[in-house]
Amino acid sequence: MFFLAVLVLLGLAFDVRGLQSLIPEEAGIKANSAVAMMLGSLALLRRNHRILTFFSIAVFLIGALTLSEYSLHRNFGIDEFFIRDTNYIFYPGRMSQYTSIGYMLLGLSLLPMNSRHHVLRQFSRVLGILTGALGALAIVSHGYDTHVPNLIRPHSNVSVPTALGLLIGAIGVQYATPSEGIVRLLHADNAGGAMLRRLLPAGTLLTLLLGYAVRDAQIHYRWESGFSLALVGLGVGACLIGGIVLTAVDLERQDLSRRESVSLSMMAAKAAPVMIWMSGTDKLCTYVNKPWLDFTGRSMDSELGSGWAEGVHPEDSQRCFDTFTQSFDRREEFQMEYRLRRYDGEYRWVLDLGVPRFDQDGSFVGFVGIGVDVTDRKRVEQTLRESEARFLDLAEQSRTTHWEVDPQGLFTYVSHVSQASWGYRPEEVVGRMHFYDIHPEEGRTAFKADVFAVIERKLPFLDVIHAVETKDGRISWGSVNGIPILNADGTLRCYRGSCTDVTERKLAEDALSDMSRKLIEAHEQERTRIARELHDDIVQRLAFLAVQLDVVRRNIPDSGSEIGRRIGDLRNQATDITTDVQSLSHELHSSKLEYLGIEVAAKNFCKEFCEHQGVEIDFQSYDVPAGLPSDLSLPLFRVLQEALRNAAKHSGVNSFEVKLWGSGQDVQLTVKDHGAGFDSEAATKGTGLGLTSMQERLRLVGGELSIISQPMRGTTIHARVCHNSGGLWRNDSRLISERG
Question: What's phi and psi for 466, nearest 5 deg?
């Protein structure tokens, strides 16, 4: 249609008569008519856009204004607006009255063709049919060279291009909504569609050919009109009979196919391991398969009609009937559960699924459904509900708040204990607060970052102690446990866990830790005082005594005498005692540790220990951070001292390995031997204070001590302190870790 309009406009622009009429010696199309045809084609091409309204109104206005010129005998100046017409004296450039009517109908049919209202779309299709009928009548008139009154004559002519444009536009309006109207019937996959597709082109073509032949015969052979009409009717009748016969053959083929399909469906229903039923359009049962009969223990005749309902439990009967009736009336799928009496008299729960059935032409023919015995599943669900209820009762009665958060940390569930522990009711928390919102403002950012690092790795955590700011502003402490819940594809669905109020325990532990810290500090201060007194007083006095004894030995005339030798022995003993006391002073308080750091102090201690104990120590160190605070370096140094003394005393070997290194956030120390070993659990529970002292020193600074030892397999002592923990979660031995 668009290209036809462009072709005609080119003919008008360049005065090519053949392009204006398409048929020699026939009236040509006017410029306004070609423009209206182009606008109509654009409306069809852009029918899903808002610009459709503009194009439709423009087509209507062109036709309406032209028709008004004829009615009012006035010239509005639109006839030769685009191209000057030199072919006509009367009404140059003006389209005919019937062409104007055709474009008015076309414009009105284009406007509502995509409306949301069914009535407007139906109105559009009716106007389209009228437009197409006008174009078809003009084409037939041209073809038969029959001047139908007022359609083909000067000043009222509907040209061939115009008639083609109106016909194509009318067809486009019908296809704008292919799921409705005659287009739906034409493309329907049923007997009606098949008949229409056969009869419409055949009847149209035969009628046109007969009409042309009869008209030609009337002119040349002077046939009577009655005989001509009879001949046309005979041809049309033959066409109808042929279409009916072909349709009957197709319907028979479809019926055979449908019967075969039904037969296969019945065979499948009999062999299926589930109960299957069918109903007709009267809502009565028409079929049940063998598993249904085996379940109920009744005959087919007893179950058909409404007999199947006799086995439904009385308490479920009305609900079951209402669900079926409502779904049947609405032609909707349904799902329901009811109790059905089994052959042994026991009522069993059945899950019934029903769907509507339609034949090939879309007609409703009833319902089909399946029934599955779900009694065992119902019992399991009931047991699970009872178990969950007991769990919730216990959870509500405990001091533990149970919670669930989504991957973004938003609470999706908390138990009612939250009101007693946190001061918030569950409805104030769920969907409104994140886990970090209950943490005090101070340290909240670090706490949030630490927890999200755990969530990202999908790790569980155990007995994490953290502060909780209650609704009234108090600070309490909670012990939190959590596990990740994953989806089938491995993505995180949520975290679930518990939070127990351990405020009293935390305060007691803090008090105990404070007391232990003070005792250790007092112990260290006393060791420092004694070490200084030994170094500054006793060692000096012993050194002076050794010097004096040496002077006395030299002043004896006969230094090789017995007295001289004894004085020399006393000097040597005094020197050894001085060295031992000095070593004891260094063990009590290492000045190298205070001024040179843990790495130098540990290396020097191992060297002195080797000299005094006569053993070998393989000392290695690397990546030890400089400037490690004394409150962290001192516990490591004391562990080294205690571990080497115990190894030299109990291992039975004289070769040891010491390793000191840094690893980003912490500093670690291992002391290893391949000696006799011991039972670490028994030693921990014993009365000795060595291991207990090491553990307590490290615990106070957030460190760890692990002992791996078995009889005759050696011992490894591992100590770790965090010098840059970055948060609560990274320096607690019970927190999340890959160690399990």
Answer: -145, 160
What CA–CA distances, in Å, run from 88 to 19, 154, 157? 17, 10, 13
Instruction: Rounding to the nearest 10 degrees, give the CA dihedral for residues 413, 419, 421, 422.
Output: 80
Same domain (yes/no): 148, 15: yes
Rg over CA atoms, the chain: 52
Statement to judge: residues 180 and 292 lie in one domain? no
Helix axes of 539-555 and 562-588: crossing angle, nearest 10 degrees? 170
Query: How far, in Å, CA of 189 to CA of 180, rounded?
Result: 14
3-state secondary structure of 444: helix
Among 105-114, 121-130, 694-703, 725-734, where is mean pLDDT lowest?
725-734
> What is the number of structural domains in the chain?
5
Determine, yes or no, domain membership for 317. Answer: yes
HEC-encoded secondary structure of 233-262: HHHHHHHHHHHHHHHHHHHHHHHHHHHHHH
Phi, psi of 160 (to 5 degrees): -60, -45
Mean pLDDT of 488-513: 85
DSSP annotation string for 515-536: HHHHHHHHHHHHHHHHHHHIII
Dist CA 228 CA 352 (whole Å): 66
Q: Where a domain ends, among 236, 258, 280?
A: 258
Beta strands in 487-629 (DSSP E): 492-501, 616-622
For residue 328, tell me if it sits in a domain. yes
How far the first Cα of the chain sits from its last, in Å, is 77
**How high is the pLDDT of residue 217?**
65
**pLDDT for the residue 731:** 39
Name the burial class of residue 534, with classes exposed (0-12), middle (13-18) and buried (19+) by CB atoms within 10 angstroms of its CB: buried
Domain that holds residue 710: 597-740
Cα-based angle 437, 438, 443 (whole degrees, multiple of 5) = 80
Task: Name the nearest CA neighbour of 493 among 406, 383, 573.
Answer: 406
Whether 707 and 615 share a structural domain: yes
Could you read off the pLDDT of 20-70 as tens digits, one per residue? 555 555 556 777 788 888 888 888 888 888 888 898 999 899 889 888 888
Distance CA 674, CA 659 (A): 15
CATH number for the domain spanning 435: value is: 3.30.450.20
- Kindly state the average pLDDT of the residues 509-527: 71
Between CA 442 and CA 449 the distance in angstroms is 13
Q: Are residues 71 and 96 in the same domain?
A: yes
The pair of structure tokens assigned to 422 is 């946190």
Condensed to tens digits (0 to 9), the pLDDT of residues 269-318 reads 565 678 999 998 888 999 888 899 999 999 999 999 989 999 999 999 99
H helix or E strand, kind and range, residue 668: strand 666-673
User: Do residue 88 and residue 144 come from a single domain?
Assistant: yes
d(CA 289, CA 295) in angstroms, rounded, equals 10
Classify each residue of 340-356 as buried b or exposed e, where b means 16 or more C-beta atoms within 10 Å of its C-beta. Answer: bbbeeeebbbbbbebeb
**Which amino acid is present at 383?**
T
Pairwise CA distance, residues 103 & 101, whole Å: 6
Shared domain check, 605 and 621:
yes
Tokens of 711: 């009889």
